[in-house]
Design a protein that fits this description.
The chain has about 190 residues and is an all-alpha fold. It is about 70% helix and about 0% strand.
């Protein structure tokens, strides 16, 4: 079913005229008419305005031309979310923030976003574990040596870089699982 047909059916089921929908959604009447009769394909922003007015999600109105295209778009969105986790190489905690932003931006391609939530959950857990390991390492080093720094280079930086390499390995494993269509990290819970 086309987005125009979905909009028309929803609008009629709610007893809303095209004029009222246009006024409430701040989309021109002519645009609403073109979308509903199928002569125009709505942009995502326009779909969002209409969906908000009708009280539904954008994903409920947006339907790609075929299921294979929907599947490809979802896989590409998941790959983008996973690869955005590599920002840990530049800035700590960006491995959580950027994938979450990418996920929010691609919600229309991921109506069922369990895999995206799993990718971000793994990064949250990795970050929490890394912080805990670094604190414990620092406390152990102070307890054993009485000093924070051993030699000229703090060992804490070395431990952190090793943990970052572990995260890069996790990201690569996730990319392989996505490409093979396997479930990622079945025993790790989704945190949100």
């Amino acid at each position: 079913m086309t987005p125009g047909k979905k909009i028309s059916d929803l609008r009629k089921s709610k007893g809303i005229s095209q004029e009222l929908l246009a006024e409430n959604s701040r989309v021109s009447l002519r645009t609403i008419q073109r979308i509903e009769n199928g002569s125009s394909t709505p942009r995502l922003f326009t779909l969002k305005l209409i969906a908000d007015c009708l009280g539904v999600a954008v994903a409920d109105l947006h339907s790609p031309a075929n299921p294979a295209q929907a599947s490809a778009e979802a896989l590409n969105a998941l790959r983008l979310i996973n690869m955005s986790c590599l920002t840990i190489l530049m800035v700590p905690f960006l491995n959580i923030i950027l994938p979450a932003l990418v996920w929010r931006r691609n919600l229309q391609h991921l109506p069922s976003s369990k895999a995206a939530k799993k990718i971000i959950s793994v990064q949250i857990l990795w970050t929490a574990a890394t912080c805990a390991i670094l604190v414990i390492y620092q406390l152990l080093q102070m307890w054993l040596t009485g000093s924070v720094v051993v030699g000229r280079v703090p060992m804490l930086a070395g431990v952190y870089y090793i943990l970052v390499l572990v995260d890069v390995g996790i990201i690569i494993k996730t990319a392989r699982d996505l490409d093979r269509g396997r479930e990622m990290f079945p025993k790790i819970p989704t945190l949100f």
